Amino acid sequence: MLFWSLEVSKKLGIPWISFWTQPTFVYSIYYYAHLVEAQRRSHYKGSGNEGNILIDYIPGVPTLHPSDLPSFFNETDFDSQYILDLFRKSFQSSRRADWVLCNSFDDLESAEVNALMELQPPVLSVGPLLPSGYLKDESCDEEKRNGTTLLTEYDSSEWLDSKPKDSVIYVSFGSLIHVSKAQLGEIAMGLKDSGQPFLWALRPDIVASTVSDCLPDGFMDEMGSQGLVVPWCNQLQVLSHPSVAGFITHCGWNSMLEGISLGVPMLGFPFWADQFTNCKFMADEWKLGFRVSGGGHAGDNKMIDRKVISTAIRKLFTDEGKEIKNLAALKDSARAALRGGGSSDKNMDSFVRGLKALNAKLRGKED
């Protein structure tokens, strides 16, 4: 949300619509940040109260541990405080928006959506915003390719075709996250020790732009056909492949929505921002997978070793992993939301009708 654009729109006499790209529950947390900040000293690491004071006062949001908040609430460094201040200004502006549109769907966040619907401006879920071909049951290859990316994609379909159904672990930490070389080494060895085939989208700059060799020496030679490491790939195409059994993700919202919409169990490996909160909901509230570390909390910067990683992967293939029952229902709900008469379809229609009416009213004032 670009808070400065509000004043521009008001000067021009045009509607101002805020588009929120993170989950609705994170919108609620930032919307009620003043409540969190009133208790903030007791939430800080080292306050002596962590774990004793829970956050149970945000309308529509289940009880959270302070470490489940977006990381900016739990850090006192200048960068975190600067970003938190930007969010604060954005949400002051959002109260004056004509609409707030969210990339989510009502069945996924019903309590949060219902609580926010009592606010002004209207908050509407219009997602999941994915290329429509991936939300249809039939094959639609050309339509599926309509997604866009800034990075060159490697076609891994032939390698995936060679693997058994529900066997491959897909790993990606998105386009922004940086990971230490030591942690990448532990992830690599954890994948190896799991014994499962894996496809890893490993950006060349994931450690730093000056570091090119980020995997242990000889790792890929040792892996042979067990693993494929590529610089980037079409994530939707990978997640929709029948050989993919699980997704190790940083819990960025776009990645999580893709995993939910395509029915892929997730292993949460969050790093910063809303990823910790997203991981909490994925693992504990929606029960769509597990936290890799068993923790995955903001401020927990401990190295996650290979044994923890391999154990988490194996868990997906145990009875516990096979009993992740909510995936199929939410996959169906994501698709239903966008069909004619679905919740997101209705919300978009309501928005378009309201926008037309508001523009007509504004033009009438000009006349």
Summarize this structure as a short list of keywords or feature phrases.
single chain, 367 residues, alpha/beta, Rossmann fold, 2 domains, 6-stranded parallel β-sheet, 3-stranded parallel β-sheet, 17 helices, 9 strands, glycosyltransferase, UDP_glucos_trans, UDP_glycos_trans_CS
Word description of this protein:
- It contains 17 helices and nine strands.
- The chain has 367 residues and is of the alpha/beta class.
- The protein folds into two domains: 8-129 and 333-366, 3-Layer(aba) Sandwich (Rossmann fold); 153-324, 3-Layer(aba) Sandwich (Rossmann fold), CATH 3.40.50.2000.
- Helix 9 packs across helix 14.
- It starts with a helix and ends with a helix.
- The mean pLDDT is 86.
Look at the structure and give the mean pLDDT: 86
Order of helices and strands: HEHHHHEHEHHEHEHEHEHEHEHHHH
* Fraction in beta strands: 5-15%
Give the CATH class of the largest domain. Alpha Beta
If you consult CATH, what is the topology of the largest domain? Rossmann fold
Major sheet size, sense and barrel closure: 6 strands, parallel
What class do helices, strands and sheet pairing give? alpha/beta
Overall body shape: globular
CATH architecture of the largest domain: 3-Layer(aba) Sandwich
Q: How many strand elements?
A: 9
Supply the CATH superfamily name of the largest domain.
Answer: Glycogen Phosphorylase B
